[in-house]
């Protein structure tokens, strides 16, 4: 059997954990999980682990020389839009500059690079978007992620893919950043009132679906841009109400508000969402329905 030697960065994050667990269950992959911590935050699956800060160019070089991956999936990011607004240099170093470093190291050893990106590269004026839509980010996070995409495109790599996704939800161990669905469940379970925007629209994505989609992309060795998200376009308020319904929580605690309710809000694109036809036809991507994905998360939380 021809093994795919896959190096995953940011492996202790929400997507990184799901992806490493997915790949390490399949015999065709030999996985090296890397993250900033001394060890993995999870233990299911059979994979190697090495500490790696993607902004440390010499550490990246050494890790590539030691493991010699034939494919790298970059899940490392500063994924909080507020943190990107407040700590621009750190955000740029991770989301843009480090991608250039990874792409250069991939080129040297002939490896493929799969870069994970976001709906926030778009302005949100005319979603849902397909892969040919023109990016025009409205916040610093989106600009840094677009710069990361452009570093891949400009790198001269023989083989690369950019996988954009939207509003990820799921469970994982000891996350440094929670996600919207867990936040709604935890807040409502404590009986807390929450204010949720009803003018932002998304196609929320169950992280297990995204991990499966990326695995399919590796398996078929597809290049180019792919939009992998859920199928259903909903307002974030409707998403919160669906979470309450699926988890049997009190939806009267959810108050609809518009985006300008939050005084210090970071600008967020209003209507994103993805058309996922390319992933469906070229990868066999087939995400859970929103209710089924949320039910799976509810069961994982038990
Ligand atoms: N979450 C979402 O809704 C969406 C996410 N995306 C994209 O998906 C990808 C995965 O995001 P997600 O898993 O949700 O985010 P997480 O924040 O859960 O994971 C990102 C990981 O990157 C790690 N990281 C940060 N800086 C470095 C560094 N210098 N070196 C190595 N690792 C680093 C973080 O480490 P630590 O835990 O130590 O902080 C974290 O574990 C990102 O590219 C993100 O932009 C796109 C659309 C939606
Ligand atoms: C905390 C909070 C969030 N929201 C809304 C804002 C937003 O539409 C949604 C999710 O907010 P978050 O701050 O979790 O995430 P946000 O920064 O909007 O989400 C993004 O994550 C990054 C990584 C991406 O790349 C994007 O695809 C996107 O999904 O919830 C409220 O309405 N009320 C609240 O009190």
From TrEMBL:
It catalyses: dTDP-beta-L-rhamnose + NADP(+) = dTDP-4-dehydro-beta-L-rhamnose + NADPH + H(+). Coiled coil: none annotated. GO terms for biological process: dTDP-rhamnose biosynthetic process. InterPro entries: dTDP_dehydrorham_reduct, NAD(P)-bd_dom_sf, RmlD-like-bd. The keyword Transferase does not apply. GO terms for molecular function: dTDP-4-dehydrorhamnose reductase activity. Keywords: NADP, Oxidoreductase. One of its GO terms (cellular component) is cytosol. Residues 5-301 form the RmlD-like substrate binding domain. Pathway: Carbohydrate biosynthesis; dTDP-L-rhamnose biosynthesis. CDD domains: dTDP_HR_like_SDR_e. Its EC number is 1.1.1.133. Catalyzes the reduction of dTDP-6-deoxy-L-lyxo-4-hexulose to yield dTDP-L-rhamnose. Belongs to the dTDP-4-dehydrorhamnose reductase family. This is dTDP-4-dehydrorhamnose reductase.
